[in-house]
Amino acid sequence: MTSATRQPETPASPQLSTSFEPGGTPGAPSVPPRLIATDLDGTLLRDDKSVSPRTIAALAAAEEAGIEVFFVTGRPARWMDGVRAVLIHHVHGHGLAICGNGAAVVDLHGGPGAHRFVKVRELARDTALDAVRLVREAAPGTVFAVEQTYGFHQEPAYPKLHMELPDVLAPAEELLAPGGVGTAQPILKILAHHPTLDPDAFLAVARLAAGEHVSITRSSPSALLEISGPDVSKASTLALCCAERGISQEEVVAFGDMPNDVEMLTWAGRSYAMGNAHPAAIAAASGRTVANNEDGVAVVIERLLGERP
């Protein structure tokens, strides 16, 4: 998930605790995986944001077997510091992560506050302004925040959903205006919050209003939407990274739990929704595993490695 809001605890899924549904088309030959793409919050991480020893061991075993591991998250780069040790020291050396729902590929080797942006798929200011206007017209009462490569700004009425202080408080139209705040930094996404709408209803309304101009998704349990540039998603950026490595989508195994994972789960050759997943993620995935608190990613990786000759 993208938001640092406190998440409800994930219920256990005893009905899935001893088995998982393999992905792929029934009867089709299974292509050996070359890359594992996994979401973080609600997927790889437990509800307390820790990574279990079992999961670390499974990821390390995958890398040792020649399967590259990519972390694909809605988090901004500055929120990756808590899992940086796992990313670099315990799992692999490349230190790359796809952040902001595909808006950036980040090299985490620089450490806190010194991340290098390898690839940025920015949201143009005029497009962002159009999205703000259209969403606000469709859902009166919506308030906005702006996420940049190194900055975070919000409207005064935007609630304190994130465990940080904004750099600037101002109306979205002022924050996004040409020559406005932070013009030297690309905009990765804007966040839209509604105080009363159901989260899925808010997503549907916003997509109907502005979906032709921007990519809109959500990963928070609250009515908080994440708005990126057109065609920017976890899947499209992951596809670019895979193409650079000569890896086909059939060779990718993906894990996720929320609507912002849907495109990635659909794109990957094999994909698994967590036992705690949103119905949209379950519908998009080709298989299902147990919940994040039960090490669902590790369960599948262990089985996949066991299938290898």
What is the straight-line distance between the termini?
35 Å
Radius of gyration: 19 Å
**Number of beta-strand segments:** 14
If you average the pLDDT, what whole number results? 87
Helix content: 25-40%
Shape assignment: globular
What is the H/E string?
A: EHHEHEEEHEEEHEHEEHEHEHEH
Which stretches are low in confidence, meaning pLDDT under 50 for 5 or more residues running? 1-29
Sheet having the most strands: 8 strands, mixed
What is the percentage of strand-forming residues?
15-25%
Number of DSSP helical runs: 10
Question: How does this structure look, described?
Answer:
This protein is α/β, with parallel strands linked by helices. 29% of the residues lie in helices and 19% in strands. The protein contains ten helices and 14 strands. It has an eight-stranded mixed β-sheet. Strands 8-7-6-9-11-10 form a six-stranded mixed β-sheet, covered by helices on one side. Helix 4 (125-138) packs across helix 6.
Task: Name a few traits of the molecule.
10 helices, six-stranded mixed beta sheet, disordered N terminus, 309 residues, alpha/beta
